[in-house]
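Question:
Now give any protein.
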Amino acid sequence: MKKTLSIMILTLILACQKSEYKTVGFKAFEITVPSSWKKHKIKGIDSYVSGLITDKNDTLIFDLGWYSGDLTRNNEVLVFDKSEYSGFTEKQKKQLEKVKHLVVDDFLNAKYNAKDYLKYEYELDSIDCFQAKFIKPKNKGFGASGIYIDSLKGGGPNSNITRLSFYGNSLSDSTQTEFFKALKSIKLTKYCE
């Protein structure tokens, strides 16, 4: 009798506890996120834009449309002229010490190999039925983390391509880890069969 009562009490306690995660639905996909994250509505102009707010108040924005951006195509570099660098906070300067960067007198006339100072790195992985770039800054204080999917549908010479980007800026290690875990959970309900 004691064993049955203990099992019933334990089951009741577990049933009353809130789940650590929840599934949030958007028009084109669903994503599983920590239960403390909230849906964030944004009005887009030429695409479907919306996002999430994390428990640390980080804003994670997605853009689903023809012009969604791939951060790795910008070829941004961690090279700064002295005047730009002097405007950084002490925290930003301290963060820069952890990665390869360059401070120059004149950005336009400086000579350096841009590949040595790229702002972003990425790995290819899959999300649902698509290949995605998981992008992160080499220095978390200077850039966005997220994904880019080049083509959900379309293509060819006479059609438009639908792309997906989903980014958050200057995320902490723990938030970036949770965000990447959530991104892996995406189900592209309108695009994968």
Summary: The first helix runs from residue 2 to 16. The chain has a mean pLDDT of 86. The chain is about 20% helix and 35% strand.
